Amino acid sequence: MASTDSGVHRLAYRALWVLTLINLLNYLDRYVVTAIIPDLKAPPFALSGSQVGFLQTAFMLLYMLTAPLFGALGDRGSRTRPIAVGVFLWSLATALSGLARSYTQLLAGRAAVGIGEAAYVAIAPALLSDLFPASRRGRVLSVLNMAIPVGSALGYVVGGLVSQRYGWRAVFFVAGIPGILLAALVLALPDPPRGAQDAGASHNVALLARARAAAWQAARVYWSLLQRPRYLLIVLGYAAYTFALGGLAFWMPYFLEQVRGIAHAAATTGFGGIVVVTGFVGTFLGGWLGDYCLRFSRQAYLWMSGWTTLLAVPCAIVALTAVQPGLFYPAIIAAELLLFMSTGPINAAIINVVSPLERASAVALSMFMIHLLGDAPSPTLIGWLADASSLASAVLMVPLAVAVSGALWLLSARVNARSSAATAGTSLA
Q1: Do 257 and 394 share a structural domain?
Q2: Helix (H, G, I), strand (E, B) or coil at 238
């Protein structure tokens, strides 16, 4: 039995590292276009600013719209096959973008990337939740999400270096080809039964058989999730959090350059370096702290995320209002560090608040909502307010959104605690 457990343990960690590496490529691919904007605006394409911007919008639209479909598939059949197909599809679309001869072809390639990435992001957290016990999910999902800041920064770095030396088309080849190879590794990963790490695993198997027979009811699952305050409050807080981080990531380098007078190169590389370090350290620290606090409260992920996010509010205000680099740079570091601490625990909270048979659907719906209400509108809204007043005042929406996020997560912790207490009381009665 011990050797069997050891083998399962090794397979679980193999899956974690493969999926984390894929997540790194996921975010590298998302941000690699940003590094070649000057090339796309130059002949022969000579794209306008709105055309360049719509490359990201097209990706995000297809990403949001197809996530619920893959979430339903991930709850009813194989999880490794849809992930492998998604990784292969987005990587192939990225590589083929390097062969584009028109804006339409490039736009189609970026939109297809959104479809492929939706398959991976919707299903991977649910798969990992059945490979590791609940007491480790905060750390496991934090490791998965540490790839976000690292991959995002690599998108800028790899895109810039490769385009300067080999041209912008080579950027897409470098970003896409590794994913095609990784897709094959996904097929060799384990796919345990739903709820394998939760109580009542045998009962979950019976429920899965019924869920497969009623696959047409997937829409009812999403409607049911939207009617659950325990789930909805977490996701709405996550949307406010994504609104803040998305707006900050888009506008902060330009803010440092235009409002604080930092040189362009120093603003972009400096902020990128801050994101990498604080993202890596904060995400790991938050996952470890969330799992540790589970010893004291079943709602530890939400309590910890709520308080650390509220602590980030004054740091964000100082970062956006102080005029001396000796003040705003440390404040940016502190705010980013505190914000990234919530990434793993909040994803674990979403996983834990629903049935093992709904996890991929729950993640997919949360993806749809946090992007629809979060980082899809925030850059545009901040830009609109900057045009109407000033960028210095427009970016103050960020700490406001951070405060809303922390408050919603603390409220969610109270609601979940009361619900758990009521359930326990009913079972005792």
Answers
A1: yes
A2: helix
Taking only the tens place, the pLDDT of each residue in 58-117 is 888 888 888 888 888 877 778 899 999 999 999 999 999 999 999 999 999 988 888 888
**How far apart are the C-alpha atoms of 389 and 381, rounded to whole Å?**
12
Closest by alpha carbon to 191, among 292, 299, 74? 74
pLDDT at 213: 46
Identity (one letter) of the amino acid at 166? Answer: Y
Residue with tokens 């590298």: 28
Residues 3 and 56 in one domain: yes
DSSP string for 308-369:
HHHHHHHHHHHHHH--SHHHHHHHHHHHHHHHHTTHHHHHHHHHHTS-TTSHHHHHHHHHHH
pLDDT in tens, 170-192: 999 999 999 988 899 999 898 88
The C-alpha atoms of residue 357 and residue 164 are separated, in whole angstroms, by: 48
pTM: 0.76
Residues 6+ apart with CB under 8 A from 79: 123, 126, 127, 191, 360
**Burial environment of residue 68 by CB neighbours within 10 A (0 to 12, 13 to 18, 19 or more):** buried
Both 187 and 234 in one domain: the answer is: no
Exposure string of 335-345, with b = 16+ CB inside 10 Å and e = fewer, is bbbbbbbbbbb
Alpha carbon distances (Å) from 388 to 224, 385, 392, 394, 395: 40, 5, 12, 9, 13
99 compared with 155, residue with greater pLDDT: 99
Residues 280 and 150 sit within 8 Å (Cβ to Cβ) = yes
Apex CA 170: angle with CA 165 and CA 171, to 5°?
Answer: 90
- Lowest-confidence pick of 197-206, 230-239, 362-371: 197-206
The total domain count for the chain is 2
CA triplet 188, 191, 192: central angle to 5 degrees? 140
What six digits make up the tokens of 149? 């800041």
Fill in the DSSP letter of residue 192: P
Query: 221 in a domain, yes or no?
Result: yes
Q: Which domain holds residue 318?
A: 217-423
pLDDT for 418 equals 83
User: How far apart (Å, rounded) are the C-alpha atoms in residues 110 and 93?
Assistant: 7
State whether 188 and 295 are in the same domain: no
pLDDT of residue 66: 86
Q: What average pLDDT does this structure show over 149-164?
A: 81
Worst-scoring range by mean pLDDT, 5-14, 135-144, 230-239, 292-301? 5-14
CA dist., res. 143 & res. 348, Å (int): 12
